[in-house]
Design goal:
This protein is mostly helical. It contains eleven helices and no strands. Helix 2 packs antiparallel against helix 3.
Length: 224
């Protein structure tokens, strides 16, 4: 049964990965990406790495992929305009793809296993603690400085992305705390003597106080 589920999840993972690359609709591509993450998490569970499986589901499916989906749906990117320069940059993209393919082929055919990998693979796994505890002990004891350094690099990358994408928009509404605190009563309130049984249209009272001229200057409707 384990072998059957392994081939089943692997086949769905490969199909979903192919659909991520070939889908024309970006929303469909993100949905196939979520499906690929879920099947990869299932493969981690079969391999006995439950911590990596839950991390993949919580972090990538629950945060990153959903964020991609909302960004794609809310930005309303004009993909037709983006594809207009495809023919112009196709030779450059093909050259870069060939270089990457050559590098991957060199790594694949020139790869050799480390001499001590078989001894490490045959070593006994700790039975007193779970995989999550063992992984935490390794990260926060032997490699704690490298772990903190990787977090610092990610923080710098996030700040850099925010700084590069931030643009000063003209005409945007912003809150002016000093102006709000310095305003007078006559700027915000208007005291009127309202006759008995007089409606808002008869006394010329409209809300908000400062309206555009077509609304403010209109004549009140008289009722029969």
């Amino acid at each position: 049964m384990i072998t059957l589920f392994f081939y089943l999840f692997s086949a769905v993972l490969l199909g979903a990965s192919a659909m991520v690359v070939t889908s024309r609709n970006p929303v469909h591509a993100v949905l196939f990406l979520i499906l690929a993450f879920l099947n990869a998490a299932a493969l981690f569970l079969i391999a006995g790495a439950e911590f990596l499986a839950l991390t993949l589901v919580v972090v990538y499916v629950g945060a990153v992929a959903v964020l991609f989906l909302f960004v794609v749906m809310m930005l309303d990117v004009d993909f037709v305009q983006l594809r207009e320069g495809f023919q112009r940059y196709a030779p450059v993209g093909a050259a870069v793809g060939l270089v990457l393919f050559g590098e991957l082929a060199a790594v694949l055919f020139g790869w050799e296993a480390w001499s001590g990998s078989f001894a490490v693979r045959g070593s006994a796994t700790p039975s007193s603690v779970s995989n999550t505890v063992a992984l935490g002990q390794v990260l926060y004891t032997h490699y704690v400085y490298l772990f903190q350094l990787s977090g610092l690099i990610l923080l710098v990358a996030m700040i850099g992305a925010i700084v590069l994408t931030h643009r000063e928009r003209r005409g945007a509404l912003r809150q002016d705390i000093g102006r709000q605190q310095a305003r007078r009563v006559d700027e915000t309130l208007e005291i009127l003597q309202v006759p008995s049984r007089a409606g808002a249209g008869q006394i010329g009272l409209f809300r908000p106080k400062h309206l555009p001229s077509p609304v403010r200057d209109r004549e009140p409707v008289e009722r029969a």
